[in-house]
Design goal:
- It is a single chain.
- The protein is mainly α.
- It has one domain.
- It has three helices and no strands.
- Helix 2 runs antiparallel to helix 3.
- The longest helix has 17 residues.
- It is elongated and about 45 Å long.
- The chain starts with 5 loop residues before the first helix and ends in a 6-residue tail after the last helix.
C-alpha cells in the first residue's frame, strides 16, 4: 500500500470480493464484507441481521 490512498485500496478490495463465487451459503458473508468495505453500514447491518436469523433457524440458503 506504499503511498496508496486507503479508499482506493478499499475500492479495489471490494471489486475483487465481488468477483469471487463463495457459493450460496457464503454469498451473504461476501455481500456483508463488500458493504462494510464500501461504507454501506445500513446494508451491512441488514445482512448481519439476516445471518443471525439464519443461524438461529439453522437453515441453509438454497438457490
Amino acid at each position: 500500500m506504499d503511498g496508496e490512498d486507503i479508499f482506493d485500496y478499499l475500492d479495489r478490495f471490494a471489486a475483487k470480493l465481488k468477483l469471487v463465487d463463495y457459493g450460496p451459503d457464503n454469498r451473504l458473508l461476501r455481500d456483508m464484507l463488500v458493504a462494510i468495505t464500501t461504507g454501506d453500514y445500513a446494508e451491512s447491518n441488514r445482512i448481519s441481521e439476516l445471518l443471525e436469523r439464519k443461524k438461529a433457524a439453522q437453515i441453509k440458503v438454497i438457490k
